[in-house]
Amino acid sequence: MTELRRRGGGGDPDSTESISDKEADGDDRLGFPGEGEGDMEGDSKADTPDVPPSADNTPECLNKALEGLSSRWKNWWIRGILSLTMIVGFFLIIYLGPIMLILLVMGIQIKCFHEIITIGYRVYHSYELPWFRTLSWYFLICVNYFFYGETVADYFGVLVQREEPLQFLVRYHRFISFALYLAGFCMFVLSLVKKHYRLQFYMFAWTHVTLLIVVTQSHLVIQNLFEGMIWFILPISTVICNDIMAYLFGFFFGRTPLIKLSPKKTWEGFIGGFFATVAFSFFFAYLLSPYQHFVCPVEYNSETNRFAVECEPSNLFVMQEYTLPAVVQNGVRWKTVNLYPFQIHSIALSSFASLIGPFGGFFASGFKRAFKIKDFADTIPGHGGIMDRFDCQYLMATFVHVYIASFIRGPNPSKVLQQLLLLHPEQQLSIFNMLRNHLQEKGMLPPAVEEAQ
User: Fold this and answer.
1) Among 88, 154, 302, 440, which is disulfide-ready with 158 (CB 3.0 to 4.6 Å)?
2) What pTM was estimated for this model as a whole?
3) Closest to 174 in 3D by CA, of 204, 153, 158
């Protein structure tokens, strides 16, 4: 029978988990014993990093106020107080507008990248090999340059047309991005050190997977924001709600373990969190839908040099009357109900946040278990690192982006116009004539316009 051993992580003893010797001594190794080639000698000594116990960074005032409580209830109050603080801060940033939200996403992205890379650096640093940390941050800059350059080209076309340097950067943006990446690639090849090739390629892959998980998903969060702040606020809020409600239901009613990767997760918390999140999302969508500030696409106004969120709301955010199914009519004695169509979409978003979103957390739990760490960092007392709070958010961001592209977004006239403005005058005239002929054939061009031509 496989012998089990306890994983120490500091903090609450309830958080300890069992890890088999096979997992600890086999799958977690960076080196692969049994390969006697000379250039692999250094790799055979590699193992999981010696991670120091998590520091207790709880504010002293909270420690004194809660010193009479058991560790279980003390952790409950710390998590609750810090959660409320973060929620208030989140809504304050929403009040400050889209620019602050974009800066918030970028700050979270950088911190999450730092937390994951630091775990890898604890292994890599022991060999005193050059350039890993420098190259990791260099690749982060390159990838951000590529993604945010694409955003500038898509959403700031009018501004680009006014500035000659920006026109050059946008026109050759992808070539410049590729050249920057090639420079980093060449620096990595030059940094290869004999006897440690395997480990260096391991860390090269570590950096790229981290970029894929963190930077790509944060870019999608910003893309969702430009579709309308409601597509940013509601998904994030549903994940937060599910996290809180699953924790509360599990804390008070949890009895049945859900998954071995997270021994504290229970079926009671999972199911209770689902129903609470769907209800919250449905009513929160009702509260946000009437306001242009939340439902209008975020666009840059070149005249005021500010982001504008004014528009004629789409049909998604116009109250509609729906006829209830006969079975429901017999139960509630209502024949019709008035809803915003977006409320129906909110059910799909909240269902994903409750049923699939937690798997982002399970994935993170597996990652932490593999490296025998309790949290990614100790940035937030009672919660761990920033990545511990946003492991589900990134998965949600991808779903929302795909959902909008598949079921919501149609052709965007403003983006088409921006592309047309980048063409040469002869090309623009050719397109104008083609469009005019097409409209004349459809009978949509007014006769007066036809005569003038």
Assistant:
1) 302
2) 0.75
3) 153
